[in-house]
Structure formats: C-alpha cells, structure tokens
Amino acid sequence: MSQNTNNYYLPAPSLWPLIASIALFLMAGGFAMQINDIASGHYVLLAGILVFVYLLYGWFKEVIKESIAGFYNKQVDTSFRWGMSWFIFSEVMFFAGFFGALFYIRTFALEWMSKSTLVWPNFVATWPTSGPAATEALEAMGPWGLPAINTLILLVSGATLTYAHWGLMKDNRKQTIIGLVLTIALGAIFLYLQAHEYAEAAFTMDSGIYGSTFYLFTGFHGLHVAMGTVMLAIILFRITKGHFSSHNHFGFEAVAWYWHFVDVVWLFLFVFVYWL
Amino acid sequence: MNKRTILSVGATFLSLFAVNSHAAYALNLKTPATEIAGQIYGLHMLILWVCIAIFVVVFSLMFYSILKHRKSVGHKAAQFHENHWLEVIWTIIPVIILVCMAYPATKTILAMKDTSAEDMSIKITGSQWKWAYDYLDQDVKFISTLSTPQDQIQNKAEKGENYLLEVDNPMVVPVGKKVKLLITAQDVIHAWWIPEFGVKQDAIPGFVREAWIRVDEPGVYRGQCAELCGKDHGFMPIVVEAKSDVDYQTWVAAQKEAAASASAGADKEWAQDELITAGKAVYEKNCAVCHGATGAGIPPAFPAMTGSAVATGPIEGHLDIILNGKNIMPAWKDVLNDVDIAAVIAYERNALGNSTGDSIQPSAVKAAR
Amino acid sequence: MSTTTATHHDDHGHPTGIMRWVASTNHKDIGTLYLWFSFFMFLFAGALALGIRAELFQPGLQFVEPENFNRLTTLHGLIMIFGAIMPAFVGFANWMIPLMIGTSDLAFPRLNNMSFWLMVPAAILLLGSIFVPGGTIAGGWTMYPPLSVQNPSMSVDMSILALHILGVSSIVGSINIITTILNMRAPGMTLMKMPLFVWTWLITAFLLIASMPVLAGALTMLLTDRHFGTSFFDAAGGGDPVLFQHVFWFFGHPEVYIMILPAFGLISTIIPTFARKPLFGYASMVYATAAIALLSFVVWAHHMFTTGMPVAGQLFFMYSTMLISIPTGVKVFNWVATMWRGSMTFETPMLFSIAVVFLFTIGGFSGLVLAILPVDIQLQDTYYVVAHFHYVLFSGAAMSIMGAVYYWLPKWTGHMYNETLGKWHFWLTTIAFNITFFPMHFTGLAGMPRRIPDYALQFAEFNMISSIGAFALGISQLLFLYVVIKCIKGGPKAAANPWEGAEGLEWTVPSPAPFHTFETPPTVK
Asked: ipTM, 2 decimals?
C-alpha cells in the first residue's frame, strides 16, 4: 500500500491467508479421513497439498516481486531477519521436545519398568529395546555405516553452502552457482541414502519404543532436509534470474540459516539416536 | 468483597475446630486416619493461616485505599512510583515464609516415600471400571466393584447413605500394620485414593508404583478413582475396612474358604436354568455397563447383545471373546471364575431377546483357559 | 485496488464488504475479528459449562450420560483455552500494540491475517468432531493416553489436527508480535519506556514460540500411537503413558502463563489510569514478568505429583513452584501500591481491575496450597483444582479482558458505552462467579473428584449452590454482549482520550481510531 520507502511497507489486502486456511483445512481433514480409512480421504488430502503448493508459490512470488520493486527498506529487512530467527527457534523447540522424550524414556521410564516386576517379571532395561512385550530380538541401526556417511555429507554441504555465500558476497556468480548446486546435490544424496537406510532397516515404526523414536525423529529431520533442499533449489533458480546482489540477498541467507539448523539437528540425532 | 465470601471465610475459620466426616457443607479435609494424613492436615492448616494473614493485610490496605484515596472525597494523587527498600522487603519476607513452609513439607514427603519395612503387601490393579486386590503374602484375590444399584443412579429409588461410595468386596487391612500398596492398571491410567489416609497414587498400566498406609483406628474408609479413565470414572469407588488383627485373620480365612468352594462349584454339573438365573446377576454387575441392561448396547463402541453374531453364533467364539477380550472389551479370564463365565454365557444366549437354547458347563470353561 | 465509497475516505482506501474482513492487512480489523471470534467461543463454551452444571445440580444422572458429560467437560476446556482466552489476548495485541508503540501495523500484516483465518478451520475441525461417529473427544482437555489412544473415534484425530493448526496460528502470530515490538517501536521508545502491556506481550510471545512446538510434538506422538503403531505411551512396547504428561505439561505450564501475563499487562494499564498515578515499580514489574516466564519452564511436573516420581523430582518441582509465587506476589503488591494515595474513580474498567487483583490473588493462594506436595496429594484431581484454575483464569484472565474491553471500547468505536449497564454487568458477574466457584474449594477439600457426572451425597449442597451461580454467571454475559453491541451502534461521542488519567500513544489518535494510524512514527521523548 504505502510505497514511500521511508515508511514501513504495508501490503495491500490479500487473499493468501484465506487460501492458506483452506489448504490447511483440506490437508487436516483429508489426513484425518485417511488415517481412519475413509475412502475419499486421500483425495481431500491431495487437494489440500495442491492448494498448499499453490499458496506457497503464489505468496512467495508476491513477496519476491515486492522485494525486487524496492518496497522493502532496511527496517523491513530487519523484520525478516527477526522473523526467520524466531521461526528457526520454534523448530529447535519442536525437536527439543522429542529429544526430551528420548531422554526421559532412556533414563527413567525403562528403569522403572524393569523394577515393575509384578507386571513384567523378566524385563531388563537396555537400549535399544522394543519393550517387554517384544517377541523378537531387535537389530538396531548402528552409527558407523550410512549414518556416518550422511553426517559427513551434511557437514560438507554446510561448507559448500558457505562457499556459495562467499561467492555471492563477492559478486562471483559462478562460485555461487557451483556452491549451491553442490549443496543441493548433497542434500538429495542424503535423502536418497536415508530412504535406502529405511528400506534396509531390520525394524519398523511399530518395533516398540526404539522403532518409534528412530523413525519419528529421523523422519521429521528428513522432512526438514527435503524442505531445505527444495528451498535451496528455488534460491538457485532466483540466482539464475539475477534476483540477488552482493549486499542484498536476505532470501539466500534465510535459507542458508535453515540449512545450517537442519545440519545441527542431524548432529544431535547422530549422537543421541544412532550412536549412544 | 461480597457477603457470601465473607461468610464462607468465617465459616472456614470456625470449622477449624470442628470434626468433619460426611457432614453436608463440609469445609475442610476429612478427619485423618493415618499419621501421614494428620501431617497433611496440619500442613494445610499452616498454609491456610499464612495465606489468610497475608490476604487480610494486603487487602485491608487496598480497601482502605479505595475508601480514602478516591477523587470523590477530594484526595489528590501522589506521584511516587518506586521505593527500592519497600520492594526489597516485600520480596524477601515472602521468600522467608516459603522456606518456613518448605521445611515441614519436605519432611512429610520423605515420610510418604518410605515404603520400606512393610508388614504386608497388596497389589492393587485399576481397570475400567473396577479395582482388583491381590494380597501377595496370602494368595487372596478378588474384584471390587461399585454396589450402588442402577435404580438409585437413575433416580428411580432413594439414594442410600453411601451412595456411589460402596462396593461389593472392600479391601480389608489390619489396624496398626504398615501395608505396602503396589499399584498398577490394566488399561488406562486410574488413581487409587482414600482421603482419610492421605494416599493418592496414579495407577499406570505397565508400571508398578508404591505407596503405604498404616491405619490408626478400625473403621470403614471410602475414596474414589482420581484420574479420568473413561465413562464410568465416577463409578469405581474404593472402600477399605480396617479391622483388628484378630478380625483381619478371620476375614483372610473366610476369603480362602470362599475361593476354594467357588472352584469346587466349577466341577459340578449345572442345569441350564440354574446357569441362566445365576448369569443374570453376573451380567448386570459386569456386562450391562457397556452392553446395556436389556442388551441394546451403545453402538458403535459397545455392540448390542440382542441378536449379536457372537451371542447367537458358535458358542466357542462366544467363550473366547469373554475369556480373552477383543479391542476395548477387556479379558475376563482373570476377573470371573468358571461358574460365572458359564452362567453369563447361558444368560446372554437365552435372555436379552436371544434364545439359542444352548449353554456350556463351568468345566468346559476351565478346560478352555 | 478497489475504489472506496464516500464514507471511507483516505488516501489509500480499503476494501469494503466481505473482502475487507477476509483479505485484511489491517491490525485494527484483524484485532476486531479475533475479539468477536473469542466472544462467540466464550459464549458457546459457557453454554457447555451450563450443561455440566445442570447435570451436577443434584446427585444422580438426570440429563446426560456419563460419556457425554466427559465430552462436555473436554470441549468446554479446549474451547475456553484455545478459542476464547488466547484469541482475546491476541485481539488486544493486534489492536493495541501498534498504537501503543507508535507504528503503522504489525511487522507482517498478511501473516497476521493468516494467523486469524487459521482459527476457522481449527474451529470447524474441533466443533465438527461433535458430529462424527463416536462423538467428540472425551478424555479431558489434557487428553492423557492411554485413554486418548483407546478412543477409536475420528473425532480425536480431528481435535489433534485442530490443535496443530492453532499451534501454527499462535507461533506465526507470536513471531509477528515479537518482531513488531523489537523492530518497530517509535524513535525514542526504548524497551524500558514501553507500556507494560507491550512488555507482557513480548514475553508471552516468547513463551508461545518456545512451548507450542513442544505441544505439537506431544500431539504428533499421540497421533502416531493411535494410527501408526508407535509405542511412545504404551508400556508393552517400552513406552510410558507418563511421558505424554511430561511433554504435554512442559507446554501446558507456560501455556497458563501465556493466558495470564497479558492480563497482568491489562491490569497494569487500567489501574494507573483510574488512580491517576503512575504504575508503581515499572522496572520490577518487567523483571517479575520475565522471572515468571523463565520459571514457568521448570515447574511443569507439579501437575503430576501423584504419578509417582522419585523424591528428588518431587522436591525440585515443589520448590520451583513455590518460588514462582514470589514474582507474582510482587506484582500484586505493586498494583496495590499504585492505588495507594492515588485519586481513584471507579468506572467499569477500574471495577473489573480491582476485582481481578482481589480474586486472582485468591486463585494464587490456592495455587500455593497446591504447590505444597503433600497437600496436593489430597487435592489433585479434585474440585479444589477446578476452583483454583477458575479463580486465576476467569477472575484473572477473563475479567481482565472484560475490563479492558470497556476501557478501549471508546477508542475502537468512538462512543462511550453505557456506564450503568457496565456496572450492572460487573456486579452480576463478580457475585455470580464467587457463588459458583468459591464452594468448589470446599467440595475439593471434602473429597469430591473432578470430571465425574454424579457424586456422593455429602457434596450435594455445595454443588447445588455452584450450579445456581453458574446459570446466573452465564446469563450475565448476555448483558455484556448487549452493552458491546449497543456501544458499537452509538452512544455519547468519545474524545481521543476519554479517561482523565490515561497515558500512552493510543490516546493521541482520534476516537474511533482511523483505519491507518502512525504511518509516520512519532518521536517519543
């Protein structure tokens, strides 16, 4: 609305919020139907996902247009920085809840369960475990195979991304693109290896508490890597379109922060889910 | 403040000196029947007095201010807005008060947790919607269910004195002995609570939590389940009878004898009519709560008995579901004995709108376990 | 851009009709949306409570079956917390924060609208779940497993997903509010010059961003235990039902402070106005609020004292819970000190604020009683707890909201509300509230458990009194609705600052506040 860049940019009225609520309604409703085996569930869910993709595309496109048109002054840029930082903090807390749960189970609950001999006469608290009602032995996922490789992959991807960032700051387009392409490739390889690991695993999500924590934690992480990889690809696309300059490229930075965050979460996963 | 609150506060004050057990308008905790409950009672009184004292001081000042520092009597506003010394003092004094409260509370917590050196142990299992007691040193076990008739609950009969707080088989303990309670659950979280004992312990499926009681005086003590556990959460009370040592031993002997004759009844040959008659009582006590007094059920969660495929189909399937449960229907094999199961099968198949004409003997139930 | 009609006349124009509300990027309109949404949810959840109290009027089962009773209590709790109290405070944040800090709107106006409109699908899912087979969830608003895993109805999943959506709405909204407060204050307004309401919202937003994701984790684990075979809360698989309680209450305790800190901010705004005196101890109020927020993360297991945790845990959580009463008490003292030697008048907002200070403190004291673990063993899951949280949530949060509505109606509508009717609403509410909830302290002490549709005879008298009070309380809120609608439609014209003692940038703009304000920020001395 206000195009005087001395003043903070106020956007025109927009239907994207309504479209967002329609998307989330369809996704949630469809998902609820799906998991309760209602026939049309997956159509509703699919419709929701399509609307959601349309929403993301449309809304971000609008924001990018406004940015390129020069509507965003320094104060708006600061708002974006704060916004992205707090968003990443909320994601940290999401994973923190899961790690807390793992800590509680391993440190306390299993111990107390093994002391409840009136209910479980033969249960010994070890980790990993599928619980006292498990009928078959559990073969856990060791850290020093694919997981270690994946750790290396993500760490290197952090470096390649930083390399790309330096290129951007020096106006070296070639360096930026190479760095980004490498990062995206590494992200994709990570995802592929994770999928492979899931397929080869000797246990499933219903293999007791170990399977539950393993798949839920690594699964959500994988989802975040996937989102990060997609975002990096979009940034790559924007670079080819010349959207960024050496001193004005918050979109790149925001996605880079996100990628580093995903990397750090993996390190915690590697230590606490795979290793210890 | 409004008059009612003033009256209520005054009534609380007076009640400090009264003994309240089942009186209407009871204002305070129940009369303690154990040492721990006595400590809790005292702790509560201490905190209540402290809170009342602070409350009176602070709000006397506030109401004084409301009366005197108002524009309509011409009072002009002062403009002060801080006073460091005052703020420090009114931070430190509450801290001191809290420390003084924390000390006796800590001692009571340590006492409550000390389940060692017990004289006997009882395993308590909560399930939907009854309690099971298993005297670990005695091989006595039984189920305890609400015994208030449905007529009273549905307002068709006058309510008895212990409405909703009475059971068929109370837990019995000897007076003066330290009884360790090992508490768990079958299905969802319940909680075992007797206010007069000062004991409330969540019953968590898959885990055993310990508590203990030492009852001072003989008597009957009543409590309720204290964790939402489904539709009949309000209908699974706990009753404990504390008896003298001699009376307790008599009771134990009687329990063992009753158990022996119940399993003897399982070897006898029963006539179908006898089974159906006995089965009606078993059904009403255990099954009607979900499947309905007339067999109508509450579909889709609780299927109807009338015309059901299970109750009119093969009798082996009917027996299997009762013994082993299915989905949210619990397994009854550890709850009902052979005679009861045979009886209720006979009733379900030959009453409630069904008439298959068949039944099985208790010995067949025993064989199928 | 749509052309405007003659009645709305400014340089930029804004859409009218439905588009105005659906596509809004204006903090005032979005604030209005939140406030109306919350009012309707408050009345609906209140009606559910009347269903509860009707059944509890006498012993015996008269009106509802036990499972439906559990559904009533569950929905009442969920809707009041997530549909009434939280959105009301967000509505105030939207309307007042930009005005108080001298900026044109929130940092992200479109995201702001999205936060509101996400509440609609959440509400449809939650209320729609009433109509699915198996009928709405009935495990209490706390949804403990295994009970909530046992219920096969789709309504549980719909409710879980509704809460997920509300979580997104809250997190995005809080990011918006934090960014606005940190980045868009008028030049010269340092953090320690901000109105206290802005401080309380800054801290509340932080609590929301930190705690709602943890709720999302708990809800997700519940969902996977229900449908994907996981064993987070199933001992047979190595899990623990109590794990849910830990994760849930790690969110749940900051949540209750989320519901009260903005109330503290409102009271801290209204009392100085009507005492014509500055807030006493502004700096300590800020520090006390921050202390409460930090401590709120280390007290959660006081909701779990009967689960059987080790002694060390019991002692730690008892001590930390007792400690949190100190900064809370400091705030009460500061409010009384603000009144002291002021020049008070007692218009409706002030009446509500004084009642809040008085009654919230009663709730605070019952909280202190509950903090003492051995006493909590007797009182956990009884009506004493119900009394406690209604004193802090109704006479703390809800009555602050009511007082603040009266306080700012002139600014929002340009009209003065009817003072006589406002006072009637106040007195009816306060008296009925106490009749309803004060006896619950006694029934709890006497041993009446929570969440039961029928009770033993010794609880009958107080329950009857509570039920009568509840109906009076419910009907009184219709008077509130009447006063608000009447004021919107017309009334004596309100000046830019109708309250003699009011200070703050919001009183420098006309009443009603123009559609756009502070497009160029003022300089604050």
From this structure: 0.95
